[in-house]
Recover the amino acids of this structure.
C-alpha cells in the first residue's frame, strides 16, 4: 500500500491562533502556561487533521513558537553569548523567553539584546532566524521540546514521524559572526553538530520513533565541493542512529547533487516532483532496492487543486515498480500555503472549486494514494470525479482566458520595451522640464499610515463610509501630505499612498484576474502573516487605478508629483500565481496592464512615475544557471510597463535590498531614469557595484534608515552623500530615505526629512 505523509503542516492555525497567543504573551496579556496550552491545542488539532485525512503518520517537529530553524539552534544549544543563557545551556534547557529574545531582541523575561538576523528561507517568503556561528562554538543538547511533542503525539495514539532541519542545511543557513567571520568555515563545526544530532536521534528511538525526516533543501542549490563531501561524511555518521532516516529535498530538483543524494546511506529519499518532475525517473533507476522513495507530487507552494487523474496515470507504472516503497506527499512542508479552504465562504463557488489549501492537500495526497492502490470507496470515486470536473471547468473558464489579453500579448514587439531615446537624451529633456536643483530631494512614496487613515479605509471597506466621503477623506490626507512636503522644501513630491492597504493588494483589487481570500494567511516570520492575492486568470485593467489620486495631488502643487505604481515582477512575486502558463507570461500580462496606467498618468500631466520593484531580486531561481533566464523576462516586463512614455516623462524605480553586485547588469537594463535604493546601513559601499559597472542613469542612495526611529543628523547624511559622490557623478545623485515611511509617525518623519533637505542644501553649496 502506498504510504502517505506530509513534510510539515502550517502551525499558525486556521484562525491565526498562534499569532494571537504569542502576541498576547509578549504583551503580558496571557501567561506562559496559557501560551503553552495554545501550542498544545494547535498541535493536537493539526495531528488530528492529518490522521482524519487518512495519512499513515502524523508529522511532529514542524511546530515552533517562532521559527523551525531557531528550534534547531536551541536543540543544539547554539545560543549567542549576549543572551546570557549559560545557566540554561548548562541545565540543558533553553528557556522559551531566551528563544523569543533571540528572535525579537526582547521577551517578557530576561535582558533585551540585539536580535539575531532574519532572512528569507530559500526562495520562499518565509523568514528564518540565521544561526550565528563562531569558530569556538560548542554544541550540546539544550531543548527537550521536540521530545515532549513526540510524547504528546504518542499519548494521542498517533503513529509518529519526526521532521527536523538536517545538519547540513542548518549549517548552510548559518553565518559566521564576530572576528574572522568572513574566512570562517562553517563546516569546521560539523562534527560538533553531528554529535548532538546523534543524541537527538538516539533519544527519539528510545521514545519509539521509527522514522525521522531530515530536511535538506540545501541539496536543491549549487553546493561547493566541500559541502557535497560533507553530506557524505555526515550521513555516513548518522547512519549508525537507531532510527530510519528520510532525507527530504525540495524547492527544486537535485540537479548535479542527484547522485550524491541518491547514494547517501538513508532509508528513504523525498523528491520535489512538482518543481522537477523529470528527476523522478532518473532517481528511480538508481535507487537501491531497500530504499523508499517519497514523491512530493502535490504542490506545497501553491494553492491550486492537483490534477489527480494525470498524477495517477503518471505514477501508476512507478507504483507497480516500487510497491510499498512508494510514498506520496506534498512537495514541501505545507507551511507555505494557507490552512483551510473551508473557511473561505465568501469566495465564489467556482473559484473555490479550483483551489486546495493545506487541509485539502492532505485529502488529495490520501486520495491519490488510494487511487494508486485501487482501493477507492464510492465516496472517493465521487471526490475524484468532482476534482476532475473542477479542473476541466477551470481549463475552459472564460474568467481565465480572455481573448483580448492574448491578442494584445501576441501583438507586443521588442520595440514596445524600448524608450524612444537613450538615457542621455531623455535626461536633457527631463532636466529642462523638471527644473530640479543638483541633489534633488524626494521620498519613496508612502507617508505615515496613521490610525485615522486605517480606520477610514476600514470603514469604507465595510460600507460604513460612503465612496464620496472616503474620497474626500483621502484627498484631505493627500493635501496634508503635499502641504508638509512643500513646507519641508522637498523637490519632487509624492501623494503619500494613504489609500493603499498594501502595495500589491491595492493593485490586485483593481485588476481583473485576481481574487482575495479572507483567511488565506501564510506565516511570513514569527507571528507575522501575509495574505497573498490569488492570481487566477488573464490580467486586465478595467479602469485607471491611481490616476485620480495623482492628478489631485499634482493639482495642489507646482512641484513635480511622482506617480506611484507597484511593478509587474513584485505583483507576481507576492501573489499565488496561476500554474497553467509560465510565470513569465503572467508577468507580461501584468506589465501590459501597468503600461496602460503609466500612459494614463502621463496623459494626466504626471511628469515622473515610480514603478517599485522591491521583489525583483527575491524572484531569482535557486540555481545560478537559471538566473539569466529569469532576469531576461523580469527586466523585459518592467521595461514593457515603463517604455510607453515620452522622453520627457521620468521613470523611477525603487528597490530595498542590499545586494546588487551579482544582478547589476539587470538593474541597469531596467533603464529607469532614476533608481532609489536602500544604502544607509551599508555606508554607501553598495554603490561600488554601480560604480564598477559604470551604471549610467541616476541614483538615489537612501541616506536614512526608515526602520529606526532615530532622527538622522544633517552631517551624517552629508557624509553619506559625500561617499556616494566619490562613486557616482553628482549630476546623477538624488537624496532620499531608504524606503517608504508608512510605518513611522509624522513626529519622526518631519524632523528627519527637514534634516535631509538641509543636507541637500549643504551639498549643493559644496558642489
Ligand atoms: N512606494 C512604496 C512605499 O513607499 C515602496 C515600498 C517598498 O519598497 N516595499 O511604501
Ligand atoms: Zn523599499
Amino acid at each position: 500500500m502506498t504510504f502517505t505523509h506530509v513534510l510539515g503542516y502550517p502551525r499558525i492555525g486556521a484562525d491565526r491562533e498562534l499569532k494571537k497567543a504569542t502576541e498576547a504573551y509578549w504583551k503580558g496579556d496571557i501567561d506562559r502556561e496559557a501560551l503553552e496550552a495554545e501550542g498544545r491545542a494547535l498541535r493536537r488539532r493539526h495531528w488530528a487533521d492529518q490522521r482524519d485525512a487518512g495519512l499513515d503518520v502524523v508529522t511532529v517537529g514542524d511546530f515552533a513558537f517562532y521559527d523551525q530553524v531557531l528550534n534547531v539552534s536551541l536543540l543544539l544549544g547554539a545560543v549567542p553569548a549576549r543572551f546570557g543563557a549559560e545557566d540554561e545551556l548548562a541545565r540543558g534547557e533553553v528557556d522559551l523567553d531566551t528563544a523569543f529574545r533571540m528572535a525579537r531582541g526582547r521577551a517578557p523575561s530576561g535582558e533585551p539584546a540585539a536580535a539575531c538576523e532574519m532572512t528569507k528561507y530559500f526562495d520562499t517568503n518565509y523568514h528564518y532566524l540565521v544561526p550565528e556561528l563562531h569558530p569556538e562554538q560548542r554544541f550540546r543538547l539544550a531543548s527537550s521540546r521536540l521530545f515532549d511533542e513526540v510524547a504528546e503525539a504518542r499519548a494521542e495514539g498517533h503513529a509518529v514521524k519526526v521532521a527536523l532541519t538536517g545538519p547540513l542545511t542548518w549549517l548552510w543557513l548559518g553565518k559566521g559572526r564576530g572576528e574572522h567571520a568572513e574566512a570562517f568555515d562553517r563546516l569546521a563545526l560539523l562534527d560538533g553538530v553531528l554529535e548532538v544530532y546523534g543524541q537527538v536521534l538516539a533519544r527519539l528511538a528510545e521514545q519509539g520513533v521509527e522514522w525521522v525526516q531530515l530536511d535538506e533543501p540545501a541539496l536543491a542549490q549549487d553546493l561547493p565541493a566541500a559541502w557535497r563531501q560533507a553530506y557524505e561524511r555526515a550521513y555516513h555518521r548518522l547512519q549508525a542512529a537507531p532510527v530510519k532516516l528520510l532525507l527530504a529535498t525540495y524547492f527544486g530538483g537535485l540537479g548535479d547533487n542527484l547522485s550524491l543524494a541518491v547514494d547517501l546511506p538513508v532509508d528513504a529519499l523525498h523528491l520535489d516532483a512538482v518543481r522537477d518532475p523529470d528527476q523522478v525517473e532518473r532517481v528511480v533507476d538508481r535507487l537501491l532496492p531497500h530504499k523508499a522513495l517519497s514523491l512530493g507530487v502535490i504542490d506545497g507552494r501553491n494553492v491550486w487543486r492537483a490534477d489527480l487523474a494525470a498524477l495517477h496515470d503518471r505514477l501508476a507504472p512507478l507504483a507497480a515498480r516500487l510497491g510499498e516503497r512508494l510514498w506520496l506527499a506534498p512537495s514541501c512542508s505545507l507551511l507555505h500555503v494557507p490552512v483551510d479552504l473551508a473557511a473561505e465562504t465568501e469566495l465564489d463557488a467556482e473559484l473555490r472549486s479550483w483551489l486546495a489549501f493545506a487541509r485539502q492537500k492532505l485529502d488529495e495526497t490520501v486520495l491519490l494514494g488510494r487511487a494508486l492502490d485501487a482501493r477507492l470507496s464510492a465516496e472517493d470515486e465521487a471526490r475524484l470525479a468532482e476534482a476532475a470536473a473542477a479542473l476541466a471547468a477551470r481549463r475552459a473558464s472564460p474568467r481565465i482566458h480572455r481573448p483580448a489579453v492574448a491578442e494584445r500579448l501576441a501583438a507586443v514587439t521588442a520595440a514596445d520595451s524600448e524608450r524612444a531615446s537613450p538615457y542621455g537624451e531623455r535626461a536633457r529633456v527631463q532636466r529642462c522640464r523638471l527644473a530640479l536643483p543638483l541633489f534633488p530631494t524626494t521620498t519613496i512614496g508612502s507617508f505615515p499610515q496613521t490610525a485615522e487613515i486605517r480606520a477610514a479605509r476600514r470603514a469604507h471597506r465595510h460600507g460604513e463610509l460612503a465612496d464620496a466621503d472616503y474620497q474626500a477623506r483621502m484627498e484631505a490626507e493627500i493635501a496634508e501630505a503635499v502641504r508638509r512636503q512643500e513646507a519641508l522644501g522637498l523637490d519632487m513630491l509624492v501623494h503619500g499612498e494613504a489609500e493603499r492597504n498594501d502595495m500589491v493588494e491595492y493593485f490586485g483589487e483593481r485588476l481583473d484576474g485576481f481574487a482575495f481570500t479572507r483567511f488565506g494567511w501564510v506565516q511570513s516570520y514569527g507571528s507575522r502573516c501575509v495574505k497573498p492575492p490569488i492570481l487566477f486568470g488573464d490580467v486586465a485593467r478595467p479602469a485607471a487605478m491611481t490616476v485620480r489620486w495623482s492628478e489631485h495631488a499634482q493639482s495642489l502643487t507646482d512641484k513635480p508629483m511622482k506617480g506611484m505604481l507597484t511593478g509587474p515582477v513584485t505583483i507576481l512575486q507576492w501573489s499565488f500565481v496561476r500554474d497553467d502558463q509560465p510565470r513569465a507570461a503572467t508577468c507580461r500580462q501584468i506589465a501590459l496592464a501597468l503600461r496602460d496606467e503609466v500612459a494614463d498618468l502621463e496623459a494626466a500631466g504626471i511628469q515622473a512615475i515610480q514603478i517599485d520593484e522591491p521583489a525583483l531580486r527575491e524572484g531569482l531561481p535557486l540555481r545560478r544557471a537559471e538566473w539569466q533566464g529569469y532576469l531576461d523576462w523580469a527586466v523585459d516586463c518592467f521595461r514593457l510597463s515603463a517604455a510607453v512614455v515620452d522622453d520627457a516623462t521620468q521613470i523611477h524605480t525603487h528597490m530595498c535590498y542590499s545586494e546588487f553586485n551579482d544582478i547589476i547588469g539587470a538593474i541597469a537594463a531596467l533603464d529607469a531614469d532614476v533608481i532609489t535604493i536602500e544604502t544607509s546601513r551599508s555606508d554607501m559601499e553598495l554603490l561600488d557595484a554601480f560604480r564598477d559597472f559604470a551604471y549610467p542613469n541616476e541614483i538615489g542612495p537612501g541616506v536614512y534608515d526608515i526602520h529606526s526611529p532615530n532622527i538622522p543628523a544633517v552631517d551624517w547624511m552629508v557624509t553619506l552623500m559625500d561617499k556616494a559622490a566619490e562613486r557616482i557623478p553628482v549630476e546623477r545623485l538624488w537624496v532620499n530615505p531608504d524606503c517608504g515611511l508608512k510605518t513611522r509617525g509624522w513626529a519622526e518623519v518631519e524632523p528627519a526629512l527637514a534634516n535631509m533637505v538641509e543636507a541637500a542644501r549643504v551639498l549643493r553649496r559644496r558642489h
In short: Residues 32-53 form the longest helix (22 residues). The longest strand covers residues 292-298. The pocket of zinc ion (ligand 2) is lined by residues 444, 614, 654, 656, 739-740 (CB under 6 Å).
